[in-house]
């Protein structure tokens, strides 16, 4: 794969589980020829000390939409994997401010500034029968609807299932056991069985990067593109090439 040298990418959520893999995929890829910008509370990892990485660190998240719209060069594509947990945020109301409100504000700022493509890491089940009753699904659904209404050249949504990977802090007490069971199914029963409801963070990240590149190259299947779990696995593992 190759991308035009005139494109640039901004990553929001670059210090999180999926976001850090998105960033590392870009900075370690020989296909990356243009600047990768990030906005985060703390400095992101730069595994190759790439000169293409241009981080913006600001602990006040309320400034991020303005910071995004003032990035130079203006990114062609924004990828947001921004999200937190109810426990880390201190309750549903605070989680909503990050997972929903900030993502919505970032998408609106990107559109106003002239960003062409917006990629959002959402979640499986946002359109399920019970989604309107589940706060987490409501947050993700609201962001998806906003991105679609803004009519970017390409709005791309990834809806992974359970996200597997090494987190700095466990989300709950049984996380390690759960991950072990899921990976055991993939190892001893069928990887396809695991793929139906769980994906590795690295696979999700690669799928996001490939989808973004396809949009930039005019190869996305549609302006509004939703990748469910099977397509995430297809792009991020089965068809991934550098």
From TrEMBL:
One cellular component GO annotation, for this chain's record? mitochondrial outer membrane
Domain NAD-dependent epimerase/dehydratase per the UniProt entry, residue ranges: 11-176
Protein name according to UniProt = NAD-dependent epimerase/dehydratase domain-containing protein
Q: Which UniProt keywords apply?
A: Membrane, Mitochondrion, Mitochondrion outer membrane, Transit peptide
PANTHER family listed in its UniProt record: OXIDOREDUCTASE HTATIP2
Which InterPro entries does its entry note?
Answer: Epimerase_deHydtase (IPR001509), NAD(P)-bd_dom_sf (IPR036291)
Give the membrane topology: Peripheral membrane protein
Main location per the UniProt record: mitochondrion
User: Pfam families annotated for this entry?
Assistant: Epimerase (PF01370)
Which GO terms of type biological process are on file? import into nucleus
Per the similarity annotation, which family is this? Belongs to the FMP52 family.
Q: Which locations, inside or outside the cell, does it occupy? A: Mitochondrion outer membrane
Which SUPFAM superfamilies is this protein grouped with?
NAD(P)-binding Rossmann-fold domains
């Amino acid at each position: 794969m190759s991308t035009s040298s005139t494109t640039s990418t901004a990553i929001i959520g670059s210090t999180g589980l999926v976001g850090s893999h998105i960033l590392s995929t870009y900075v370690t890829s020989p296909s990356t020829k243009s600047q990768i910008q990030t906005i985060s509370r703390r400095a992101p990892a730069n595994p190759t000390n790439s000169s293409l990485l241009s981080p913006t660190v600001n602990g006040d998240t309320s400034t991020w939409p303005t910071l995004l719209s003032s990035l130079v060069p203006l990114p062609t594509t924004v990828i947001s994997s921004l999200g937190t947990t109810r426990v880390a945020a201190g309750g549903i109301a605070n989680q909503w401010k990050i997972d929903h409100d900030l993502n919505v504000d970032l998408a609106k700022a990107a559109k106003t500034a002239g960003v062409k493509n917006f990629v959002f890491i959402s979640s499986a089940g946002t359109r399920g029968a019970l989604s309107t009753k589940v706060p987490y699904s409501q947050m993700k659904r609201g962001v998806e609807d906003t991105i679609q209404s803004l009519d970017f050249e390409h709005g791309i949504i990834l809806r992974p299932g359970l996200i597997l990977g090494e987190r700095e802090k466990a989300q709950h007490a049984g996380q390690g056991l759960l991950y072990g069971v899921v990976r055991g199914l993939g190892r001893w029963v069928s990887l396809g069985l695991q793929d139906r409801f769980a994906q590795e963070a690295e696979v999700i990240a690669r799928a996001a990067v490939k989808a973004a590149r396809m949009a930039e190259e005019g190869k996305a299947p549609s302006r509004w593109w939703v990748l469910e779990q099977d397509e995430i696995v297809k792009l991020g593992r089965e068809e991934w090439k550098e």
